[in-house]
Amino acid sequence: MTHFRIGEAAALIGVSDDTIRRWAGDGRLDAGPDDGGRQTVTGASLARRALELAPPSAEPGALRRSARNRFTGIVTAVQREGLVAQVELQCGPNRVVSLMTAEALDDLALEVGSRAAAIVKATTVIIEAERR
């Protein structure tokens, strides 16, 4: 079974170390010491908690879409060159870059500091994990 130290668990789901400790103390996460005596939480309980915290996939009355990967963030850079534009978003710890037409950039009125969401639908998604 996979275990994560408090700081790793917090970084994985975007909360503070203190929140992970509180959830472990409240029994919302399965926790215990590792071989070195450091507090850890199980990956399975962390995954369950992450799903509980995830926003609903669609709000009542909201548009529905087939893409499931939605990253909300802040625009950190905009470059326009002729007919194309490049927009960079910082979505939590993730940097997302989109290429679009300059017309789409104008229609969206994006500028540095704007809130925006990147919606990703891809035919290939590559998963990477560390070796055990």
Automatic annotation (TrEMBL):
Top-level lineage group: Bacteria
Keywords noted in UniProt: Molybdenum
Gene3D superfamilies in alphabetical order: 2.40.50.100
Keyword DNA damage: no
Keyword Acyltransferase attached: no
Pfam families for the chain: TOBE (PF03459)
Domain spans labelled Mop: 64-129
Name of protein: TOBE domain-containing protein
